[in-house]
Amino acid sequence: MIERGFVPDWHMDCDPRPHKVRFTAKPHKDCTYVMASCCDPLVWENLKGNKVLVWHMHNGKDTTDWVSKNAPWSAVIGGGSTAGLRAIQIGGILGFRKFDIYGMDGNFIDGKFRASDSDAPPQNVVKIKVRDREFDTTDLMLNAGEIFKSTLAEL
Questions:
Q1: Cβ count within 10 A of residue 4
Q2: Cα 146 to chain center, whole Å?
Q3: CA pair distance 32, 68, nearest whole angstrom
Q4: Phi-psi category of residue 60: left, alpha or beta, with phi > 0 → left and psi -120 to 50 → alpha
Q5: Residue 85 and residue 94: Cα distance in Å, rounded?
Q6: CB within 8 A of 32, min separation 6: which ones?
Q7: pLDDT digit string (tens) for 34-54?
């Protein structure tokens, strides 16, 4: 977005995989980076001197035990199996109540992921119908959506 002239107010990530480093390669001073502690070490190098909020992903009792012992003042955030679902939780914690979401998680066109350097095609593509529109997604993203719906039902 920044390279195209759009400076977001916020950028969030919680994916430790090395290929995600490119999303912080050219940070902007006006963007606040809300990053999970598990991000690749190069992400932290990229973000030195920028506005950064750090949080921990809740992935079970081991996470909460570690945070209780090592960083009891820190935020531990659950809320889904994808970065996009966790971003909604973080937005809520930061006080936001309305979200416009475009191209979140697993977004692909013509059989290629939009936010990936990989030429590998999406795996296990399924078609779903929402109202009168049909969409392609993956079984993993469909599962993530179901988990999110069940999380909302518990609130």
A1: 6
A2: 17
A3: 26
A4: left
A5: 15
A6: 9, 10, 11, 51, 52, 53
A7: 999 999 999 999 999 999 999
**Residue 92 CB-density burial (10 A; 0-12 exposed, 13-18 middle, 19+ buried):** middle
Strands of the sheet containing 10-13, edge to edge, are 10-13, 32-36, 51-57, 76-77
What does pTM read for this prediction?
0.78
Q: Are 71 and 56 in contact (CB under 8 A)?
A: yes
Burial of 91 (0-12, 13-18, 19+ CB in 10 A): middle
Q: How far apart are CA 124 and CA 140, in angstroms?
A: 8
Query: Which token pair is 131?
Result: 């109202």
